[in-house]
Design a protein that fits this description.
Pfam families: Ribonuc_L-PSP
Largest sheet: 4 strands, mixed
Strand order of the largest sheet: 3-6-4-5
Distance between the termini: 8 Å
Oligomer: single chain
Radius of gyration: 15 Å
Number of helices: 2
CATH class: Alpha Beta
Family: Belongs to the RutC family.
Order of helices and strands: EEEHEHEE
Organism: Erysipelothrix inopinata
CATH superfamily: RutC-like
Protein name: RidA family protein
Number of domains: 1
GO molecular function, one term: deaminase activity
Strand content: 15-25%
Number of strands: 6
Structural class: alpha+beta
Shape: globular
Length: 128
């Protein structure tokens, strides 16, 4: 079974790099990851927003790996940010991670996250 991602040509095209529809075939298990942030191995969070984003994607990859999952299993991404995202930089990391096979995505700019030093957080839904 394979996760199916698509954007019908009969609807408005995405304003970013994501799929409008992600279909999870029956019989697959659903995985819900806690929000991932850019915390480093020493427990600190980078002061630069770009470094935090880069570390966050490394952390997502690591957490997925612990469940024997990869980017191909990701079905939905929710992005929460307290700062405006530099989409050119973000999409470089996004494209490196997803390799052009994009899940469904939601982005929200919010006032605060769980700790004052956290600027961005992503929660991931996956299936296998």
């Amino acid at each position: 079974m394979k996760i199916i991602r698509r954007t019908p040509k009969s609807v408005n095209q995405p304003v970013g790099e994501y799929a409008h529809i992600t279909k999870i075939p029956a019989g697959m298990d659903t995985y819900v990851l806690s929000g991932q942030i850019g915390v480093q191995e020493d427990g600190t969070i980078p002061t630069s927003f770009e470094a935090e984003i880069t570390q966050m994607f490394m952390n997502i990859k690591d957490v997925l790996r612990t469940a024997n999952l990869t980017h191909e299993n990701v079905t939905k991404v929710n992005i929460w940010s307290v700062e405006e995202i530099d989409w050119d930089f973000f999409y470089k990391e996004w494209n490196t991670f997803f390799e052009g096979d994009y899940p469904s995505m939601t982005i929200a700019y919010i006032k605060a996250l769980g700790l004052p030093e956290i600027k961005i957080e992503i929660d991931i839904w996956a299936a296998k």
